[in-house]
Every structure is written in C-alpha cells, then in structure tokens.
Amino acid sequence: MNLESRVAKTQKNPEELYNFLIQVANFKNLMPEDTKFELKGEDKFLFGLKGMPEIALALTDKTPHSQVVLGSTSDKLAFTLTCNISEAANGSEAKLLFDGDFNAMMAMMIKGPINKFLEQLANGLEKI
Questions:
Q1: Beta strands per DSSP E along the chain
Q2: Of 77, 96, 83, which Cα lies nearest the Cα of 21?
Q3: Domains of the chain
Q4: For every one of its 128 residues, what pLDDT tens digit does the chain have, with 9 covering 90 and above?
C-alpha cells in the first residue's frame, strides 16, 4: 500500500528542514494534539493514533537535505514513512510517502486513518 501526502510548503530551507526531521524528538511538534508520543531513544519514538495500535518508528535512512526515512520497528505493521524535501522559492517543500505491505483487510482498515495522519503531518510541517 502506497499513500502520499500533499506537498507541504515551509519557510525553512532544505537544510533546516532536514536537520529538524533527523531529530526524531521534533516529530512530536508535527503530530496531532491527541496523538500519544513517547521518545524511545535518540532515533526512535512511539506514537499512537486514535483507533490504531501504538507504533514505534526509527530513523532508518537519511540523505542530507533531501530525504528522511523512518521505518516501523514492528513485523506486524511493517512500513516506511519517507519525507522527500526539495528547494522552493521561499523555503522548501516536503512530501510524505507511506509504503507498507499489508493484506487487503488490514489495508482497507488503515487507509483512512493513515491518509488523515499524513495530512496532519503535512499541516504540522507548514507550521514549523
């Protein structure tokens, strides 16, 4: 299952946005207010969306100033969340990509909440 957010525009330049995102503690600032967030180390955090199990994400890959990849630490919900960063006229643009391998029933159940979550993260990126 592949889902994409809209392109989020931010006044931070690509380097500033990249540096913000590789500090996983900063993801708390992007999460919706009602989301549980718990830092689990320098490069890992746990979050919980309403109606879904808690999920741990860890920083798995990064390409300076252009891409940050977080991966689920659970085999039951294996997925990646990638943020692609590009330069824009007054800052940078970011697009979030969700890529997971789920059975049809699971995909149907989580597609709506994940799409909403991606949009909330995009909104959060625009506010930083």
A1: 2-4, 8-10, 36-39, 44-48, 55-63, 67-72, 79-88, 91-100
A2: 83
A3: 2-127 (3.30.530.20)
A4: 999 999 999 999 999 999 999 999 999 999 888 888 999 999 999 998 777 778 899 999 999 999 999 999 987 788 999 999 999 999 999 999 999 988 899 889 889 988 999 999 999 999 99
Q: Report how far residue 78's alpha carbon sits from residue 13's, in angstroms, rounded to the nearest whole number.
A: 31
Dist CA 72 CA 126 (whole Å): 24
Q: Which of 9, 3, 7 is nearest to 126 (CA)?
A: 9
Task: Write down the residue that tokens 């199990």 correspond to.
Answer: 53
